[in-house]
Amino acid sequence: MSLHPRAGQSAQHSDLVLIPNLITAYYTMHPDVVDPSQQVAFGTSGHRGSAFAGSFNEDHIAAIAQAICDHRATKDIQGPLYMGSDPHALSAPAWSTAIGVFAANGVKVTIDVEFNSGMGHTPTPAISLAILMHNKSLAANDPARADGVVITPSHNPPKDGGFKYNPPNGGPAGSDITTDIQNRANAYLATALQGVKTMHVRSAIAASTTGFINYRELYVNELKNVIDMDAIRGANIRIAADPLGGASVDYWPLIASTYGIDITVVHPYVDPTWSFMTLDWDGQIRMDCSSPHAMASLIINRSNFDIATGNDADSDRHGIVTPDGLMNPNHYLAVSIDYLFNHRDAWSPNSGIGKTVVSSSMIDRVAASLGRPLLEVPVGFKWFVDGLVDGSLGFGGEESAGASFLRRNGEVWTTDKDGIIAALLASEMLAVTGISPSQRYIQLTEQFGNPVYERIDAPATREQKATLGKLSPSDVTATELAGEAITSILTNAPGNGAAIGGLKVTTENGWFAARPSGTEDVYKIYAESFIGSDHLSAIQNEAQTLVNTTIG
Question: How many angstroms separate the CA atoms of 97 and 72, rounded?
């Protein structure tokens, strides 16, 4: 991946999206239903697209919302549908379209009581928490159970929109659900929305089926049950919280006032152009709190605080900045696991650790030292949901800076990623242990080794990507990788046997995983070495040769 010459520099006027044009495109452009790129496509985080590209328009949202209504009917879900959205420009019109469809179908939609005040943006974890609290005492088949939607493309650029569904378990929907919703939605698109019910947004808000909730107060008041807020306050930790213009923008001030902790909110406002951002690695405005380029303005001021944190637009991801700089997401996952399982005495001794197949093997070594079971699953937070619900997982995390963990008493908190608690945990670590997460990671490397990790892209045709996604271990004939004997070849995750949609090859001191991109003509190579940078380069080079030879 080549670095843009202005990566990490402030956005200029020419970088900004024209919001009026974007909103106009949402309402006036209609998708070409025979073009796959303009159909509804649910990935690991719902449907995403741009109005300019004909992939996120009013037709899409009306079709998806009706498909969700149909899905709820087949599953006999009659409780409230908790609905939230982030500050992306396309989220507001999508919200209006969706509530019109939900209300016309008689769905009991619950929206943020603050939506008219400009403070109604709702983080993904707040929706997950509301669903789980409502369903806590309900049976798995009780018609009164709740579900939810979050209108967000996460950290994607300002021109994009996104729409994701969370079933009654509170987490990202599994592929059986998303496939059903996707197919139903595309069928509606193919018939010019025939059968889609709708009403005007004002009528929908006033409908007897529409309810209201203060997501912000609910979430903030419950935080003390998952994070030791008293320890943070007692240690006088100076915290900087950068919402990156996202949905947590009004949550951080309430957290500070509720718990009496020292939080400076950086960029305490919403701007749908995100003009205050520094450009990401490719010159795009992207609210990626794990990127040193997108987080440049916070990193440069890190010496003014004990802990500085960032969240993406829907606050399901975290970025942790200490006086040493921005932590690599894999590093922070490792220290979080190390800390939590040593400081949560009420957690079951059988609670395990969830990681994805492309996360650092440092996590494996930390888990082994703790004597905790490790669940290694394909990419996607949905694989951690059941374990977090029943407590068999104390922690689930992804290499892309997404994680959630149990309440302090060992009960479920959220089953979707929660960037706010992950950010606050860094301050709890410092308050309780007296050392920062980055300092603790150095200690872990002295104990377990110091891995080097990187993700790169390699070109591939659509046909090659399809082949990569369907490989079996027997398709790989190599016996060595970067001078070491291959110890395992995986196309299914060892934790649950689910297909990883690619290939993972491991040796004693390194590994790589290759997965096809869903949006570009490339495949992604994740690689790690416990020997050093030269060994990592050798793994990457040989990985590309191995994959190219295998997929033709």
Answer: 18
- pLDDT above 80 for 529: yes
CA distances to 6, 89, 326, 331 from 278, rounded to whole Å, are: 9, 19, 15, 24
Instruction: Cite the beta strand spans of 93-159 per DSSP E.
Output: 109-112, 147-151
pLDDT of residue 199 exceeding 70: yes
* Cα torsion through 89, 94, 95, 97, rounded to 10: 140
Average pLDDT score over residue span 253-273: 97
For residue 117, pLDDT over 90 is answered with: no
Look up residue 174 and give its DSSP letter.
P
Taking a C-beta distance cutoff of 8 angstroms, is the pair 289, 244 a contact?
yes
Can you read off the two tokens belonging to residue 484? 């070491």
Write down the pTM of the prediction. 0.96
Section 415-419 average pLDDT: 98
| Predicted local distance difference test score (pLDDT) of residue 200 | 96
Clarify whether 154 is annotated catalytic: yes
Q: Which of 85, 91, 154, 360 is catalytic?
A: 154
Sorted by where each starts, the structural domains of the chain and their CATH numbers stand as 17-218 (3.40.120.10), 232-448 (3.40.120.10), 452-551 (3.30.310.50)
Exposure class string for 394-412: b at 16+ Cβ within 10 A, else e: bbbbbbbbbbbbbbbeebb
Mean pLDDT score of the chain, rounded to an integer?
96
